[in-house]
Structure formats: structure tokens, C-alpha cells
């Protein structure tokens, strides 16, 4: 499949979660077996150095991250909304393009020096991915990069991640918010 064919599998939902937002919904891409397979394969090929862990961000990032971890032969670290993980956690606040939230991870999910690739479905402002990177770094993990199915470059997330020293790649871009 081409990138254009993959883009066609992404549904746009206008005015969600608030007026003016064009929500890029990857669930329609995930429903398509060949589209999902091609997405995971293209993301895997973009990773030059195999990480020890994939840090997958809740919730759609879990799907892509888990498949990518299996494909690359590495472990899966879950980055969740605060209060969703059992056991001892650490948390980070972050800004969304339409609000604020807080992410958490198990304090023992990553050890000092482990190489971690951040994965999510969509990159907008970069706040979520930066919070995930701060969590991993707080326990001594090393961020090797970040991968996304979709980038909304006008919102500046890629620029923000690169300014933080994180190498970024996405399969496709969409204009606007």
C-alpha cells in the first residue's frame, strides 16, 4: 500500500473533541488488516537501531506500540493516564492542543540505560510525547526517538520534540488542527 492509500483509511471527524478541531481517527486504519500491517511494517523499517522498549502512549498508541514491539523484538512500556496503573507510579502533567492532562508509568518499568522508543498514533503539539519522555528519563531510560502514524506539523509537535533532542518520524502528515 502507498502512503496515500494509508491516508485514505484515516477518518476525519470535524469539531471533535471541541469546535474547530479536525480529529484524525486512526481506528478506521486499524480496522483494515492490510493497512494495519503496512503501518507497522513502515514504522519498523524507520527504526535504525532496535530499542529495548517501546513506550506506547494510551490508548491508540498501545495498539501500534504493541504491534511494533512484537515486530522489532522488544518489550512494551505502557504510558497511561494517571490513576490507571496498579503499583508504584510516577506522573507528569502536560498540555494538549485542547486542554491539560497527566500521564503515568510504573516506576520500575524501565531501568537505567534502557533504550526507549516513544510510539503514539498522532503527533500534535508534542505535549503528550514530551511528558512520556520526561517519565522515561526520570527513571534513567534513554530516549532513542519517537514514531507516529500521523503528524499535524502546523501544531509544532515535531519541532518541540526535536528541540528536546528527540529524533522524530511519522508515516503521514495532515494539515490543520
From TrEMBL:
The keyword Transferase applies. Signal peptide: none annotated. Belongs to the purine/pyrimidine phosphoribosyltransferase family. GO terms for molecular function: adenine phosphoribosyltransferase activity. Residues 35-141 form the Phosphoribosyltransferase domain. Pathway: Purine metabolism; AMP biosynthesis via salvage pathway; AMP from adenine: step 1/1. Keywords: Cytoplasm, Glycosyltransferase, Purine salvage, Transferase. Its EC number is 2.4.2.7. SUPFAM superfamilies: PRTase-like. It is an enzyme of class 2 (transferase). The keyword Ligase does not apply. It is found in: Cytoplasm. Homodimer. It catalyses: AMP + diphosphate = 5-phospho-alpha-D-ribose 1-diphosphate + adenine. Catalyzes a salvage reaction resulting in the formation of AMP, that is energically less costly than de novo synthesis. It comes from the Bacteria. Its main location: cytoplasm. This is Adenine phosphoribosyltransferase.
Amino acid at each position: 500500500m502507498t502512503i496515500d492509500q494509508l491516508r485514505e483509511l484515516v477518518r476525519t471527524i470535524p469539531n471533535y473533541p471541541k469546535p474547530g478541531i479536525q480529529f484524525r481517527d486512526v481506528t478506521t486504519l486499524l480496522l483494515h488488516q492490510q493497512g494495519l500491517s503496512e503501518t507497522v511494517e513502515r514504522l519498523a523499517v524507520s527504526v535504525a537501531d532496535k530499542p529495548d522498549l517501546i513506550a506506547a502512549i494510551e490508548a491508540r498508541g498501545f495498539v501500534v506500540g504493541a504491534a511494533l514491539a512484537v515486530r522489532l523484538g522488544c518489550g512494551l512500556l505502557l504510558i497511561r493516564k494517571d490513576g490507571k496503573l496498579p503499583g508504584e507510579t510516577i506522573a507528569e502533567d502536560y498540555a494538549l492542543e485542547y486542554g491539560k492532562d497527566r500521564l503515568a508509568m510504573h516506576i520500575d518499568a524501565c531501568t537505567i540505560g534502557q533504550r526507549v522508543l516513544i510510539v503514539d498514533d498522532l503527533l500534535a503539539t508534542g505535549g503528550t510525547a514530551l511528558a512520556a519522555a520526561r517519565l522515561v528519563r526520570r527513571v534513567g531510560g534513554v530516549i532513542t526517538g519517537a514514531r507516529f502514524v500521523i503528524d499535524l506539523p502546523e501544531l509544532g509537535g515535531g519541532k518541540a520534540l526535536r528541540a528536546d533532542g528527540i529524533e522524530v518520524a511519522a508515516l503521514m502528515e495532515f494539515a490543520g488542527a
